[in-house]
Amino acid sequence: MFSIGVVFLFYSVNAQIIVEQIEPGSVGSTLQTYLETVENKLIVNFIEGFDKESTTLFLKNVSPDIKIKWRNSNNIVITTGSEKLKENLINKLQSRDDVYTYQPFYTLENGLDMAITDQIVVKFLPGVSKERQNALHEKYRTKVIDTYEIFQIIRVPKGGDALEMANKYYESGLVKFSTPDFFSNFTPCQNLPNDTYFNYQITCHNTGQTINDGHTGTPDADIDAPEAWEMTTGSNDIVIAVIDEGVTSNHPDLPNQYIIL
Which of 60, 98, 183, 184 shows the smallest number of beta carbons within 10 Å? Predict the structure, then answer.
């Protein structure tokens, strides 16, 4: 969901969210991704110990047309029939004590939906003491959920906006990156190779996975190899010439039909 060594800036222009990725130390090296708000969908995060059965009944009473999908025991994705119905639902959610946060859904230019949870992912700059980190958490009333070698997962306060909070942390000048914790539903491609190490080839298929050096990729920053394989996986009638030295003739990845000159 994020890339180590890349700064993410989130800002709004004409009701459109722009995610700008900046390579530190580079000049003019930016990548802008536009996120359009999905008008009839949102994700709601509930407090621990809430009554799931009564909450489901409450949502159905708001409108029989509402579609709900529980992501886990505390998070639910809600799809309404219209933007007006979503606004009406939000007004009702604001009066409930068991609602921790509600966050919008966004869609990428390629149609893939992305939602923001109630958490952000933060990496502090070297030299920022624990005291200064804790002071920042106290200032924004956030809670550290997990701490890893590379980053921290931080939960926003009740009623907080994860997108806004990620910007506040970055604007503090104390962090290397700060990004909302996104999630997305997608249909995986079926034409994936059985190569044991294919998951490490983020240039071919980047899902935001963590690779062997501890870095995490940026989803879809790849050559879309599986999508290409959905169209064709090639043909044995095609002859490929590899001009190179030091070829391992018995390598298991090489086909049986080859000629070494």
Answer: 60
Q: Give a yes or no: residue 18 inside a domain.
A: no
Q: Kindly state the tokens that stand for 132.
A: 């200064």
The 10s digit of each residue's pLDDT in 54-77 is 888 888 888 878 888 888 788 888
Residue for token pair 């007004």: 91
Total structural domains within the chain: 1
Q: Is residue 92 part of a domain?
A: yes
Q: Which domain holds residue 115?
A: 37-186
Q: If you compute the radius of gyration of the chain from its CA atoms, what whole number of angstroms results?
A: 23
Give the integer Cα–Cα distance in Å for 109 and 234: 29
Q: Which residues on adjacent β-strands are paired with residue 123?
A: 177
